[in-house]
Design goal:
Blueprint lengths: L3 E15 L23 E15 L3 H11 L8 H46 L4 H14 L17 E7 L20 E10 L15 E9 L4
Antiparallel strand pairs: 1-2, 3-4, 4-5
Length: 224
């Protein structure tokens, strides 16, 4: 910033002023003058006025920049454009987050539907275990026991696990009948999968790690 010094000098100016003398009042209501206004003496009083002169040695460019910025102090033109430029990145990030969350939720529903279909098929399959498992995995991934098309992109048969679970008892210790069975134990089949979600989009820039969707479903075995 430039340093500015100011100096003061005095300039004298005389102004006429009329000096009047007032006689004593003869009463409290009327003032009378013993002399006429034409013969009143006058005096000239000297007054002094300050004159300030500024000597600035700063850069002229700085002064021009300051004057240029002062033009925008009360100028509201383009204010809406500035507000949009500030808000737009946050709106885009929020929109991308909503879209990505919806896609994750939809993928989770498709995986759940696949393992449920496979578990129900395994519970009623009358063939041997290996044959039923192969057909059930294909049903989970492709929506059909043979051929079909992928429910979820990147979901493979190798990511589906089918395991038989031996139930300890059909009736628990409180007497509640968990399964309708003539024997004390029943066989339950479980189909599970672990699907690595491919990408989180803009969420990855916010520090979110890779996402893995884990889904399982159990059904009581009726066939085999």
């Amino acid at each position: 910033m430039s340093a500015c010094s100011s100096t003061r000098r005095f300039r004298s100016r005389t102004t006429p002023r009329i000096q009047t003398t007032l006689p004593q009042a003869r009463n409290r209501l009327v003032w009378r003058s013993s002399t006429s206004m034409a013969h009143l003496p006058t005096t000239r009083l000297s007054t002094r006025r300050f004159a300030t002169k500024r000597n600035c040695t700063g850069s002229a460019m700085f002064i021009k920049i300051r004057q240029f910025l002062q033009r925008f102090h009360h100028d509201e033109q383009g204010a809406a454009l500035v507000e949009i430029a500030i808000v737009t990145p946050f709106v885009l990030l929020l929109s991308a987050g909503v879209f990505e969350f919806s896609n994750i939720f939809n993928t989770r529903l498709l995986l759940a539907a696949g393992v449920e279909d496979a578990a129900r098929y395994m519970a009623r399959c009358s063939s041997d275990w290996n044959t039923c498992s192969t057909l059930a995995k294909n049903l989970a991934v492709n929506g059909a026991v043979t051929n079909g098309s992928q429910r979820v992109t990147g979901w493979t048969v190798g990511q589906v696990t089918i395991t038989p679970v031996q139930s300890l008892q059909a009736i628990d210790s409180t007497g509640t009948e968990l399964y309708l069975s003539s024997t004390g134990t029943v066989i339950v089949v479980q189909v599970s999968t672990a699907y690595p979600y491919p990408t989180l989009g803009l969420w990855s820039y916010l520090g979110f790690a890779n996402l893995t969707l884990n889904v399982f479903h159990q059904e009581r075995v009726l066939g085999w």
